[in-house]
Amino acid sequence: MRTQVDFFTRVDTLLSTVSITTASPKLFGTIAHSANGMLRARGLELAVGSGARIATENGRWEPAIVAGFGDDGLHLVPFAGDIAVTIGARVTGDETVGEIDVGRALLGRVIDAMGLPLDGLGPVNAQAHRRKQTSANPMNKARIDTVMTTGVRAIDGLMTLGQGQRLAIIAGSGVGKSTLLAQIMRGVTADAIIVALVGERAREIADFVDRHVASEARARTTVVAAAADVPAMLRLRAVERATALAEQFRDEGKRVLLIVDSLTRLAHAQREIGLAMGEPPTVKGYPPSSLAMIPRLVERSGGDKRSGGSITALYTILADGDDLDDPVVDTARSITDGHIVLSRSLAEAGVFPAIDLARSLSRSMNDLVDEPHRVAAAQIRRDWSLAEENRDLVLMGAYRQGADPEIDRAIAIRPAILDFIRQDPDGYVAPARTLSDLQDLLQS
């Protein structure tokens, strides 16, 4: 008898912890169609952008995003791409799919697009979750008024960057883009460094982490990796996760360096999804959503007046065939606060970092440096441009020395400018030394 009393007492205790008022019915739909990685679901009403889970043949519930809807029902894009799903499989909404784990526990870790560890250091214990941020109030954006030293002499001297600046790094393949990113990562002063590696070869991801994430910066760096062979939705999710993590640290008043490598492969991922959704291809096969995504992403970085924190963002862009008129290049260049173009001819001549001074600029530099620095940088950039414009004439013997004093000076100083640009990949040049070298170059 006493055993029965103890049993019912335990049941009453368990029931007292259940809140019936918070319970709600679970609504389900069913899969009606599958094609090109896109699933159609009927019998369920969810908003565009909402999260969902789909029951697969092996009994798992795979996450997906509602990408649109039509007369044929909801259009779902599973994170895992082609999943083992049958017609009539159940679908239900899940708000947690849109949440992203954030917090200091992620620093020093290498994770995938879903937040799972890739570094073999055990599970990640996130302290908080973050939903996708809506468009920020532009009046809360902070001015770019503090210099961000990179330790790269050509950048600090001739195209000075500021905290909260958004910069595009435009380069073809094999011209030293990753090496330049590593130099900047080692040289900047930041509370957190967030790196999104999107669409890279798996070997390059491991190589970048092992070689370029310096030991002293490893504890404050998070790498979010999505290799080239993962589905398009996971490549998008990797950048979303990295940006959300950077936003969380900025909201805490931290100085954050965000690196997205590369924006082009992100646009390719959105192109895959857009074309599968039936969007019309436009310039170079990009649907409208691919190019519209770029300003939405870039505008999430920058400084914040309320918290005092900032996200200084570097977005790399692959110029296919060194084409600077590529639509992704053009869109990113118009929305960022400056751009650095890496020159293949300089790289082939052994000049690294292969920064093309004539086509690179920082739109914030004039607000960050004093008058002597600004004048010196402008003169060196002018000399470089004149030398490059007339180089073919000089090589052909069509230009006679003495015909134009400015061109004569530009041609004479070009080797010294190349020496100023050239820097050892592991080297760091202090700001005072950069200014001194710049003044010496101006007087040479």
Could you describe the 3D structure shown?
With 444 residues, the protein is an alpha/beta fold. It has 3 domains: 18-97, Beta Barrel (Thrombin, subunit H); 99-368, Rossmann fold; 373-443, Substrate Binding Domain Of Dnak, Chain:A, Domain 2, CATH 1.20.1270.330. Helix content is 36%, strand content 22%. The chain is built from 14 helices and 19 strands. The strands form 4 sheets. Strands 8, 12, 13, 14, 15, 16, 17, 18 and 19 form a 9-stranded mixed beta sheet that branches. Strands 1-2-5-4-3-6 form a 6-stranded antiparallel β-barrel. A hairpin with a 6-residue loop joins strand 16 (302-303) and strand 17. Helix 6 (232-251) crosses helix 7 (263-276), helix 7 (263-276) packs across helix 8 (288-298) and helix 8 (288-298) runs parallel beside helix 9 (327-335). The longest helix is centred in the middle third of the chain and has 20 residues, at 232-251. The chain is elongated, with a radius of gyration of 26 Å. It starts with a helix and ends with a helix.
Short description:
The protein is α/β, with parallel strands linked by helices. The chain is about 35% helix and about 20% strand. Strands 8, 12, 13, 14, 15, 16, 17, 18 and 19 form a nine-stranded mixed sheet that branches. A six-stranded antiparallel beta barrel has the order 1-2-5-4-3-6.
